[in-house]
Amino acid sequence: MPTSTQMNPQTILSIWMFLLTAIMILIFSTKSFSFLDIQSEKHNHEVNGLRFFLAIGVAFHHFVYSFNYHSGHGWVVTGYDVNAFMGRFGVAIFFIISGYLFYNKISIKTDWKLFFIKRFLRIAPMALISSAICVFIAISLDDGSFDITKQIWNIMYWFDAGLYNLRMNVSSVPNASLINAGVTWTLYWEWAFYFSLPFLSLLMKDGLRLPVVITIIAASYYFIPMADYKAGCYAALFASGFLAKELNFKSQNQLLINILPIGLLLFMLYTGSSALSLPLIPLCFAFFVLCNNKNALYGIFRNKGVTRLGEISYSIYILHGIAWYGLNTFMESTNIIDPWYLFMSSLVLISTVIICAVTYINVERPCMTLLDRKKQTISSKTENQQVKAL
């Protein structure tokens, strides 16, 4: 029987990732995290639960990148195909989800001012906190040459909530953008997507929505890549979300919603191609459409722990890179599958996810509900004034 040192490192990492994910789900299934429960009939459990697995997949993706970078091998993921796939696939499905969730907002009746205020309150707070931590770490690790009068403008670039996503070095620490694994690059494309919606609302009249969606997908494959291949991929992913909403595919066929998504995942992984590529986008689309059915994948997305972790997926996404950077800065290891290193990595990730629960309750949720609470306050004051007038 082979020993752990004879096993393929990717196999060991895969087992570790599976077990660690299961442990996190068990921890968050306890009553201690009931404060994350959201009671809403409109809550899409499948999409919400899926977001946790995507976010944790991105975290495991950057786990290898961060280890290699601090080991002197550069920002690479070579040799770990599963981890390489997980991050790119996660981003691909995240973009599809964005298209799916905001498709109904594409209307001339939409209050775009209110829409962008809400989007800012949803994205910016945690993005700004992430940037502040990164800047603090970069300055803390400086060699003593830091001069705030010379770096103030470089620091300002960090606090854009991903709008243009230029991350300048602010101290002697090189590649400061990697402190949070550079995750805010996706926010740049999210903002670009949001800014496109008011213009799309002028085109998507009743009866023309599906033709416009198909036209966008066609342009994403045949025209946009001529100027920018990546932009073509991202546009195709967002439009795939539109198409998923338009088709509204629903099924309770056990083979379709339980077995086929797993088959699609294994096939995409086997091909070794990036999910952020035009050939694989239809498969990513099919995976999302199948998973977006009640009790898909044997109901895993409706598990209590998964549901709660799905709520905090954005915090997990935006903060995990900082956790890996801190771990690898203060803990030197030359072997990614060293038992002690994996044990410490487990503690760091679990602690980070628990911190994300705290940031969700104290930062994300209050900011998301700020406008609704103000509206309720104004309504209450108006009602009181009317009562007094009577």
What does this structure look like?
The termini are far apart. Helix 1 crosses helix 13 (304-311) and helix 4 runs antiparallel to helix 15. With 390 residues, the protein is mostly helical. The chain has one domain (9-389). The chain has helices at residues 9-28, 45-70, 81-102, 112-140, 148-156, 185-203, 209-222, 224-227, 229-247, 254-271, 281-291, 296-299, 304-311, 313-330, 339-368, 370-389. It is built from 16 helices and no strands.
Give a quick summary of the entry.
By secondary structure, the protein is mainly α. The protein has helices spanning 9-28, 45-70, 81-102, 112-140, 148-156, 185-203, 209-222, 224-227, 229-247, 254-271, 281-291, 296-299, 304-311, 313-330, 339-368, 370-389.
Write out key terms for the chains shown.
390 residues; mainly alpha; 16 helices; 69% helix
Radius of gyration: 22 Å
The tally of strands reads 0
Report the portion of residues in β strands: under 5%
Q: Residue share in helices?
A: 55-70%
Structural class: mainly alpha
Name the average pLDDT: 92
Query: What distance separates the N and C termini?
Result: 86 Å
| Spatial shape | globular
* Most strands sheet: none
Please indicate the count of domains: 1
Number of helices: 16
**Order of helical and strand elements:** HHHHHHHHHHHHHHHH
> Ranges with pLDDT <50 over ≥5 residues?
1-5
